[in-house]
Amino acid sequence: MALTLARASSRRALVQTTLICLPNTRHYAQPQPGQAAAFKTRNVVTKNKKAFSRKNRLGAFRSLPPSQLTEDIFKSHSSLKPLTFNPDILTENMIGSIAAFKDIPNDPIKYYGTPKQLLLEFRLLSQKCSVIRNITIFTAQELDAAAEEPSHKTRYVLTGSEGCGKSFLLLQAVQYCLAKGWIVIYIPRAKSTVNSTTTHAYDLRTQTYLQPNYAQQLLRRIHEVNSATLETLSIKQTLNLDRRSFSSGTTLAQLASAGGKDATISSAVLEAFLNELSQQTQIPVLLAVDDFQAVYNIKTSYRDPHFSAIRPFHLAIPRYLLEFASGKRSFQKGAVLGALTANDPAFPVPNELMDQLGLPGLQPRTAYSKRSKTLQEYAQGLKNLPVPEEFSLKEAAAVFEMWMSDNALTAPANDELFLSKYTESGGRPRAFVWQGILGTLEGAPPVVDEKTLWPQMREGRI
Asked: What family name appears in the similarity comment (predicted)?
């Protein structure tokens, strides 16, 4: 392609022409062969670059395939032999014992997932273990009583400081109810229902925003974990949807399986599925929600066509959670458990929950503090179940021996090391494990000098 440019002088002389030849193909900073690209596309576009730096990134500790672990140093030499977690061992005599969650075909950890902090611990340990605490026994007793009562009578919210073991206790409750034959619905990361990570569409029939992809994933997970018990339940009336109908007598396992395979009907199937679970009286149902405070924030990350923030009770999945948590909807037998995450700046604990649970806030609040009447109604009837902020000495010793048996200590494993780490962390469970026990993996092991009296001086901290 040729382009001719004409340039005329002020004296109207002979017009000079310049011929410029342009190639037929256009190149946008394409590198020469053998050279690096001048511009690179980046997947993450954010102003907070420090949060995505390698230094501040929280790893996932993904394990290598066995084909790459042929050396003897990579073979497991763990002497950890814990008890198997089951309802029979949850007695007061077993407080301070370590129990491992059994690997079963319908493992809720495998299909529902866990909060990331629990996931990291389970990947570091050779077995998925937890310690039986006083609060574990109390929760099991409350769940046994709830097996014969409607769920609106047993609605607890696990509260406590950061890293006190709320998520572990919620997971223990899930495993306990599943072993007891309950139907378990476990949502380990409730903020994923309000942080705009899945698609949403407005529904004129319900006048709410549906979340078809999340509903499809939830139905598939419920079916994988509870397929045996769902086979014993069936729908009583014919269910007619836009693209498919289910006759009376269809089992709830078939209903959940169909909704888990087709996102176009998943929202309607999930609504019908929850209605059937609410009406049946044969099997108790546990609804366990972690990041519980996320669904009580007045604004979500979802936006309507006018780019206004959508309220949580206008989204389908959070609305279901709010209705069962408030008692507006109830299972004939069962319980509702939630766990708060106190350190999430994106979804903090709102005033409505703090008022209902009697929690102190970071800032003083008065009767004139802003509150939502709708969320206050959804918070009515919730009971506070405080989780102890510290390990007892017996519980901490069991956790210390568990990590010691799994070869997680580089320092000499003795009473002095245990007491020093317990004192440093103040007995707080997460700090005791991550800053205390696993902190010994950083740097060279301390040199023990028998002439020095105090363990703090032996490790060189004084």
From this structure: Belongs to the mitochondrion-specific ribosomal protein mS29 family.
